[in-house]
Amino acid sequence: MLPRNGGATIYTRYPARKNFGFVKPFKHLFCLDNDLLVGPGGPFENISLNDSSAIREHNRKAIDRLLYENKGLTKNEIAQRLSLSMPTVTSILQKMEKEGLLECYQEKETATGRPPLKYMLNRKAHACIAVLIRENGFRMHITDVHGRCLFTETYSLAYENSKGYWEKICAQISESMDACQVELKKSIGVNIILPCQVNPVDQRVIDRRRGANYSSFNADDMEEALEIPVYLNNLYESAAFELGSTVAPQGNCIYLHVSNFIHSVCIISGKIFRPWESELGSAGHITLVPLGKRCGCGKYGCAEAYCSTEVFNEVFGESISDFLRNRMKSRRRQTFWHEYLALLSVFISNQYKMFKMPVYIGGTLARHLDEDDLELLNGMVCSATGCPYSLYLAGDTEELAIYGAIKTLLHNFK
User: Residue 214: what are its φ and ψ, rounded to 5°?
Assistant: First the structure.
């Protein structure tokens, strides 16, 4: 992948033969077919002026993005919108058509004559693949470039921290793509969803504190095996990304995953914001009760020690589902439940006050909260924040993560 040049200055296109001057300094001009090009859809990649193959690839990606966003454009429309010459556009379209990446159609003839050909992306040519890893199996979901489902299946395969395990995943990806009748090499990429922390920069698994050890997953090795881009994503970040891109107002929200541990992911303007660079979900280890009981991390008074669903097992020896089934049987249980919600409301209120964004609760807790519980909890949060309504239930975490991973691939494609 070519490195990004975030400092490049973007300019409009002018014919190269024309004598003109720039007011601002510039780093790179891209010359092809006597054109000076701008970066359609984003900043220029750091391409050498003499690297014509890289420039052609840049132009092809621009046409890919344009056809993704617009269903049906003529050659003239593509050339005008991207400020490319007709020979450049014609050459790229012919190559894409030979590779089966385009569909062409012609509208009905009118009184003005025969209409020109229109081009659109072949939906199945650019498939997106999401693979969600579980300890006892994995789920695969394949869509076309517009998000339409081509294939979805769940497989039983006990997780092993070994190279052989992900080689089996790669083999199943190839087999599933064949079933979809889509060529694997033309896919946008594969997003592997893991229930552990992933460094977004170098794509390394860096969190091995809970459950299975996922250190054997290596995006570079998988790319070499599949010959397409492979990304590693965190389960909870993928779920939060889906919420931010669909239901959250202006793409702003906090996704709070509450199970036997706590993860908090912040989405700002549809993008993941990582205020805690060293630890994903470290919001769960913010002090909630000063000098309180000891948390599994070794600190005292962490929110996770009081608000995770593990507290029901610690106090009553029951899962949260069993506890809620029996909570009306004793005053002690009712009092404990009310105190639990009160502490959770303090934690949620602190999250809201920090970012001023709605909070979506997911995980085990979300599956067991009924409408009365949610209304009670929201009332506690509202009284602390002064916000009329700031708390919602998220959907199924894995379902959200699958679609969030697909949208991440499409976002990279665009």
Answer: -105, 25
Question: Residue 311's pLDDT is what?
Answer: 95
Q: What is the pLDDT of residue 207?
A: 60
User: Three-class SS of residue 224?
Assistant: helix
Name 324's Cβ contacts closer than 8 Å, sequence gap at least 6. 337, 368
Q: What is the pLDDT of residue 317?
A: 94
196 Cβ neighbours under 8 A, 6+ residues apart: 205, 207, 208, 210, 211, 214, 234
Cα-based distances in Å from 275 to 51, 224, 242, 264:
39, 33, 19, 10
In sequence order, what DSSP letters do the residues of 177-218 get, joined into one string? Answer: HHHTT--GGGS-EEEEEESS-B-TTT--B---SSSS--TT--
Asked if 287 contacts 301 with a C-beta cutoff of 8 angstroms, the reply is yes
Give, in order, the Cα–Cα distances in Å from 209 to each of 197, 264, 279, 309.
Answer: 10, 17, 11, 18
Q: Among residues 391, 365, 349, 255, which one has the least CA distance to residue 312?
A: 365
The β-bridge relationship of strands 118-121 and 359-362 is unpaired
Q: 148-187 burial, b if ≥16 CB within 10 A, otherwise e?
A: eebeeeeeeeebeeeeebbeebbebbeebbeebebebebb
Of 179-183, 279-283, 290-294, 377-381, where does mean pLDDT reach its minimum? 279-283
Amino acid occupying residue 56: R
| pTM of the complete model beyond 0.85 | no
Instruction: Specify the length of the chain in residues.
Output: 414
Q: Which of 21-25, 221-225, 309-313, 378-382 has the highest mean pLDDT?
A: 309-313
Answer for the pair 204, 198: CB distance below 8 angstroms, yes or no.
yes
Q: Nearest to residue 176, comparing CAs of 196, 157, 153?
A: 153
Closest CA to 365 of 375, 378, 374: 374
Backbone angles phi, psi at 217, to 5 degrees: -75, 120
pLDDT in tens, 138-181: 999 999 877 788 899 999 999 888 888 989 999 999 999 998 88
Contact assessment for residue 391 and residue 358, using Cβ atoms and an 8 Å cutoff: yes
Distances (CA, A) of 71 to 2, 5, 101, 102, 146: 28, 30, 14, 11, 11
| The predicted structure's pLDDT at residue 112 | 67
Helices (DSSP H) in 115-199: which residue ranges? 163-179
